[in-house]
Amino acid sequence: MTDRFDCFISAEKSKKYDALVDDPHSIFYKHNKSQVYIIAAAYGFHYNLRAPIEGKKQQLFVSTTFSSDNSHLIWILKSLGVFVDGIESLRNSNTMASLCDEYANAGIDELYRIHKDSDDEQRDYAMMMIGILQDNLIIE
Amino acid sequence: MKIKRLEINNFRQYYGKIVIDFSTDNGRNTTIIQGKNGEGKSNLMNSITWCLYGDELFKSETNIGRSIANTTAVIKGNYQGADVSVKMYLEDGGKEYIAERKQHFEQKSGGIVSRTPTFTVHEKDVRGMVLVNQPDWFVEKRFIPKDLRGFFFFDGERISSYFVETTANIKPNVEKIAQIDTIKGAINTLGKIKSSLWKDMKKYDTSGDELPIDPDEQNEIIYTNGEEIKRIDSKIADFNSKIEEIDRYQSKNSNETLKALTNEREKLEKRKTQLKKEIEQTNKSLSELIIDRLPIILAYAALTKTVDIIDENTAKGLLPPKIQDTFVRDLLEEGVCICGRPLDENSECRAKLMKLVENVFSKNTAEDSREGRYTIKTLLKKVNFVPEYTELFNSVTEKQSEFDQIVDELNGISSQISAFDETEIRNKEAERKAHIESVNQLNRRKGGLEAEIEGAREILAMCEDEISKLRVSEGKYSKLKAQRDYVCQLETVLTKIRDSIVEDVRLQLETKTRSYFYDMIWKTGTFENVRLIDEGARYRFSVTQDGQECLGDLSSGEKQILALAFSAALHSVSGYSVPVFIDTPLGRISEDARENVAASLPKYLSETQLIILPTDTEYTPEIRSKMSQFVGAEYKIRYDESKKMSEVNNYD
User: Fold this and answer.
1) d(Cα B403, Cα B409) in Å, to the nearest integer?
2) DSSP H or E segment with residue B359
3) From A15, A75, A136, residue closest to B376, measured CB to CB
4) Fewer beta carbons within 10 Å, N or C terminal of chain B?
């Protein structure tokens, strides 16, 4: 049922995606760049970081290319749209995708910074996740 | 390339001149040189590697610290000393060559001293024997490259180190095995052309900025570090071989306490390796868990709100819509309402229906929301990752703690061995410690070099960005840019071809090894799969049984068959037309499988000159009869205890 939508990144930042999936010391090593994009968008959303893509855009993936095993990831992106623009966002997937591009464009800088600065990415992400769960009173 | 004759003179236990004529008959490709353990089989192979490469491949306890010269020959030579020489008569496609290494040894008051060895290769032509200019290059290009010789000189007794060291060297050398040096050279040249074109392009850039980086320097780092890593890998293999030699010495020592300690150390080393793998695996699972849950947790607020909004719209009756948008659209198109009223342009009814169609959710959106609600609810159930995380984290911590404890215990064992009364044992342990420290240092150095390569690659990628930003001042720039783009494309294509050939070699090696292994192994149907897995920096063997990895649990005989299968596969895939030497091929293989292996090996290596050096217990009448159809020459090594020398005689 999902409409097709295209996700773009800044051509200038594509090296950051490469670095995260190609570096054996990265937590995202050998993962798909589309997965990194979704995490970057979610990161941008959570920390309220949005940055319109300036300069040349580069298509990263198309929503329909997700396999049925990973189709749930699309709903993470759609939920960002619904949160900002309401249910109407489901009618206009291109607007929703542009919003996600902006969140991901800001989020990727942070993921790359964590990768560069962290001594232990696994521990740092786990601590961040636990902090969010505590803020939302899911765990004590 | 075939070896017609070998002449050994005063090398190790071979006193005087020993001549061996090898079978060069294609129909009977095998030469047998039988000898008991310690009679000189390994030193015969060593004489060949010394001749061709200037060193011995197989270092045994008795050889360490001793000169290669036959002591009797040197002593008998008084102050004149004696020459040690190994001469190989070779033939290749109708051409004949003689390779010879010679070194003079003399006895002085301080012991035996030697002069620098000489190595020559002569080629026979109409003028007679003509000296070949660069004999080392001849060996490297026409015989076997030094880095690959371990695959062609095979010692069945050292099977445990084979899978650790020898196979670890396959990947770094696979370009040589695939013989794609030309493509590699072309890629390097294209890299240089690219750098040069970039510099030319920069002349036409009007930005006035200086280029911050010199790509040549980065390419140089990548190349020199890569070469250094190869040298380090080779040194690590050497040290590991020495460590194993010491372990063998200690486990064979008559001192019972030492034996017990060595056995305990072996057990602990195995557990340590196993734990290291388990820690890596659990850490991987931890990373997977984090990557799976991270976006859900980061988007938690959006996901919960989306469910609330969908529920709200459902409660309001907007989802699913009471009326379908397609139905209203049909009415508007037909221009007549369901009640019969006309829906003229600008009519009030038409305007109302138009508004309705804008507000009503489409069938797709409604279904999408329903599916989304279910998907999000499922995602939210996974949000609390803490129990799974804690379990995995604790598991890693426990394993790490056991690992650290084992390291302490290993250090304790080493200290105990170091405190032994016997000087020899203490010395060996000190040597072992020093070797381990050297391996650790080399690994650290290797890690640093790899990081530098990674950094240089990143900088080169940035250089590419810089190029795309260069501002154009003259038309010539476009021409240069077009040339450079073309070179980049060529480089990409050639790199893809190289990678594809390397992968093809891996696949062929895997397929042939599996096929040969299944043919020779006596437990038919026991092993489900044999794979050669690409782990990035190296290849690793994997054998599975009942879905479980079992390479570490294979018996020595099974491992030996796997190694023989791999050697045969490698020879077949590499296309090197050079002899294969196999020392003690059946030593660890059980009686019932020996005949199978003996009959199969020459078949797999049918295009190859095969030199087998079995012990008397391996080369039984039954095995001899099985192999007879392939054997063109047969010898026996006989060691004379009273004269402390070996000689090689015809078998019968």
Assistant:
1) 10
2) helix B348-359
3) A75
4) C
A117-122 long-range contacts, Cβ below 8 Å, gap at least 24?
A121/A26, A121/A27, A122/A27, A122/B283, A122/B286, A122/B287, A122/B290
Residue of chain B whose Cα is closest to the Cα of A134 = B384
B73's tokens:
């020959």
Closest CA to B510 of B171, B194, B202, B9: B171
Angle separating helix axes B181-203 and B215-252, nearest 10 degrees: 150
Q: Which are the contacts of B538, defined by CB distance < 8 A and separation ≥ 6? A: B167, B168, B170, B171, B172
Tell which of B289, B297, B298, B397 to mutate to test the A interface (max A CBs under 10 Å). B298
Q: What type of residue is B29?
A: N
Task: Say which of B286, B302, B389 has its CB closest to residue A79.
Answer: B302
Q: Find the helix packing angle between A121-135 and A93-117, rounded to 10°.
A: 130
Q: Whole-number mean pLDDT of chain B?
A: 83
pLDDT greater at residue B131 or residue B558? B131
pTM confidence score = 0.53
Could you tell me which of B637, B510, B647, B567 has the C-alpha nearest to residue B15?
A: B647
Report how far residue A78's alpha carbon sits from residue B194's, in angstroms, rounded to the nearest whole number. Answer: 44
Contact call for B372 and A90, based on CB within 8 A: yes
Restricting to A residues 20-49, those with a Cβ less than 8 Å away from any Cβ of B are: 23-24, 27-28, 31, 35, 38-39, 41-43, 45-46
Identify the three-state secondary structure at position A138: coil
Whether the CB-CB separation of B44 and B36 falls below 8 Å is answered with no
Closest CA to B544 of B552, B534, B555, B535: B552
Closest CB from B299, B313, B368 relative to A80: B299
Residue B596: HSE in the Cβ half-sphere, 13 Å Cα cutoff: 19
Q: Given an 8 Å threshold on Cβ–Cβ distance, is B297 in contact with A129? A: yes
pLDDT at residue A1, rounded to an integer = 47
With CB atoms and an 8 Å threshold, state whether B291 touches A31: yes
**DSSP result, B622-643:** HHHHHHGGGEEEEEEEEEETTT
Q: Residue B483's closest CA among B237, B230, B226, B204?
A: B204
- Asked if A129 and B361 come within 8 Å (Cβ–Cβ), the reply is no
CA distance B271 to chain A (A): 25
Across the interface, whether the CB atoms of B305 and A79 are under 8 A apart is answered yes
Selection from B89, B87, B91 nearest residue B2 by Cα: B91
Q: Tens digit of pLDDT for each residue in B558-590?
A: 887 888 888 888 888 877 778 989 888 887 777
* Phi, psi of B451, rounded to the nearest 5 degrees: -65, -40
Pairing of strands B14-21, B2-11: antiparallel
Structure tokens given for B128: 């007679």
Bridge pairing between strands B580-583 and B610-613:
parallel
- With beta carbons less than 8 A apart as the criterion, state whether B306 and B376 touch: yes
d(CA B540, CA B506): 11
Would you say B576 and B589 are in contact if contact means Cβ atoms under 8 Å apart? no
Give me the total of CB pairs closer than 8 Å, taking one residue from chain A and one from chain B. 119
CB atoms inside a 10 Å sphere around CB A109:
17
Which residues of chain B make contact with A72, given a CB cutoff of 8 A?
375, 378-379
Question: Residue B607 gets which letter from DSSP?
Answer: T
Q: DSSP string spanning B47-113?
A: HHHHHHHSS-S---TTTTTS-SB-HHHHHHTGGG-EEEEEEEEEEETTEEEEEEEEEEEEEETTEEE
ipTM over 0.90: yes
Render pLDDT for B200-230 as a digit per residue (tens, 0 to 9). Answer: 776 666 554 444 456 677 778 888 888 888 8
